[in-house]
UniProtKB/TrEMBL annotation:
Membrane-crossing residue ranges in chain numbering: 27-47, 67-86, 93-110, 142-162, 174-196
Protein source organism: Microbacterium lemovicicum
Protein name, entry field: HMP/thiamine permease protein YkoE
One Pfam family linked to the record: ABC_cobalt
Gene name linked to the record: ykoE
Alphabetical list of InterPro entries matching this protein: ABC_thiamin-permease_prd
Keywords: Membrane, Transmembrane, Transmembrane helix
Length: 218
């Protein structure tokens, strides 16, 4: 890991070439610090959403079993936001896990399963970014990453817990999967993309490609 830009990367940038993969994927100190800050901040968001989101989850599930998944997208934000800002392998996973740990340590009703959920959801977003070789960070990719995190959450809950969803009806599982995909795409993907754009507009992301891209667009 390096806190500075290597000479080869500087030469590539000066020549207008894309940096070599080894340099592009190397974690800097600023990447680690920002991942930690994002994880803690989003962990506080998760903790706040534990009350509002869970109430919404129960209300929607009472209306139609499985629709509760529509409330889950906010809990998937870490992977999307971390991946869009840091753009390094493992960033989506790391930020989502840190956020889950913070939410768990502050206190919630799910305990250690929060950590397991965060790991799986972060991996779901990570796999989508990997599919694009960490080269594309557009709104559609962000929404796919959110949906990927939702799909991973569905798989996890299908098998895990005292009453896993594998024991429930096919209808419930299909509705729940669809709800998680929609919620992940919108509440994690779209909202996450807008959040990154808003942060970039403040200049807070000037050391990241996400911040430089916004300046070019403007």
């Amino acid at each position: 890991m390096s806190a500075s830009t290597s000479p080869s990367i500087e030469k590539d940038a000066a020549a207008g070439r894309r940096p070599a993969a080894s340099g592009r994927f190397r974690w800097r100190v600023v990447d680690i610090v920002v991942a930690a800050v994002l994880g803690v901040a989003l962990g506080l968001v998760f903790w706040g959403w534990n009350t509002v989101g869970y109430a919404w989850f129960l209300a929607m599930d009472a209306l139609t079993p499985g629709l509760g998944g529509l409330a889950a997208g906010i809990w998937l934000l870490g992977g999307v936001v971390g991946g869009l800002i840091i753009r390094k392998p493992g960033a989506a996973f790391l930020v989502e896990v840190i956020a889950a740990v913070v939410s768990m340590l502050i206190g919630n009703v799910w305990g250690v399963s929060t950590l397991f959920s965060g790991m799986v959801q972060g991996l779901g977003a990570e796999l989508i970014l990997l599919a694009f070789l960490y080269l594309r960070f557009t709104l559609p990719v962000a929404m796919l990453a959110g949906a990927g995190a939702g799909a991973a959450a569905w798989v996890f809950e299908f098998f895990y817990g005292s009453s896993p969803n594998i024991l429930k009806t096919l209808e419930f599982n299909l509705i729940y999967l669809g709800s998680l995909l929609v919620s992940g795409a919108i509440l994690a993907g779209l909202v996450g993309w807008l959040l990154v754009r808003a942060l970039a507009a403040t200049g807070a992301l000037s050391r990241f490609a996400a911040g430089r891209e916004l300046r070019r667009d403007v």
